[in-house]
Fold this protein.
Amino acid sequence: MSEVRRDPIVLSRVSVISPVRGLRPKEVTLIRHESPQVTVCPFCPGNEFMTPPATLVVEGVDGGVKYLKEDPDFRVSNWLVRVVPNKYPIFTQTNGGSYGYHEVIIEHPNHTIKPYDIPINHLSLIIQVIISRINHLFKDPRVVHAYVFKNYGGGGGASLTHPHTQLVATSITIPSVVEELRFSKRLYKRLGECPYCRLIRKEVNSPRLIYMNDSFAVIAPYAPRNPYETMIIPLTHSTTILEMKDEEITALADVLNKLLTSYKVCLGDIDYNFWIHIAPKGIGNEYYHWHIEFLPMTTLWGGLEKGGNVYVVTTKPEDYSKELKEAIYSLKS
Ligand SMILES: [Zn+2]
Ligand SMILES: [Zn+2]
Ligand SMILES: [Zn+2]
C-alpha cells in the first residue's frame, strides 16, 4: 500500500511512500559516478597559481591557525582550507542580471580524503570559513542572500574530485528559499510560532529522529524526496548560520561527521548533494529557521518528480532513519 504525504512546510511538495515489498532499505539503487579525471588538479597544494588568488586562506601555524588573503603575486602554501573565486562563476559583479559572487571552498589539502574521514576539528574550521565569507560578502549592499552547496561524486554534479563546497552570494533570493519563506510565513500567521520550531518538537519525539546533540538534530523528513534524505536543523530558533557560537560550530561539525559516516556505513561512498538554507538579509526573523538538506542519490528522478513535484519513495523514512541511527550508535560504542 502506498501512502501520500505532503511536506509539513513546503506544502507544494508531495511524496508517495511506496515501499517495495521485501526490498530492504539497503537494496535501493545506489548511484556512483566517477567525476571526470583531470591530470593536474588545480585545488592540490603546489598548484595554487592555477586558481585566482584566495579570498581567504587558513594557514596552520604552530598548532594554531592564521587567516590570510592572497594577492595576484602571492599564494599561501601551508594551508588547511582555502577559498577561491570560481573560475567559471554563475554570478559575477559585472554582468548585470546575475549580480553576485561565486566561490569555492577547498576543504582540505589532501586530494583523496573522503568527507567522512575529515576530522571534526577540521570540519569546524570549514564551517568557520563559510561563516566568515558570508559575513564578508553580506557587506556588499547589493548582496541579499547566500547559498552554500556541495556536489559530491559525478552523479551529484561534481566536476572535480578534490573535496570542495561552493558558495554563492547574490542580489536575488534563491527560489527554493523564497518558496520556504512563503509557506513558513503563512504557517507562522496561523500557528503563532515558527513552523520549523514546531516541527522540531514533533520530530525529535518521532521514529524519524536519527541523531541529536546539544545544538542540532538530524531527522529524516516526513515526506522525503529520495530514500535516505535527511535534514540537519538547529534546536534553537535561528534564521541564519551567521550567529553560531563556537560550541555550536563544534556541534554542527559533530552532526556532519556522524551523518557522513552513517551514510558511508549504510550506502557506501554514494554520490550526494547537500545545501544550506538560510534567510536572506533581514527577512523571516520570526518564521524562518535555517537548516541543511542532505540528498543522497539513491534514485533517479523521472517526470513525476522533476515536473510534478511528486516524489515516489520506495523506503519509508521511519525505516531508513532506524538504519542510519543504528550505524551512528554502533560507531559510538
Ligand atoms: Zn587535488
Ligand atoms: Zn524556529
Ligand atoms: Zn530548505
Q: What stands out?
A: The mean pLDDT is 92. The two ends are 37 Å apart (CA to CA). The chain has one domain: 3-332.
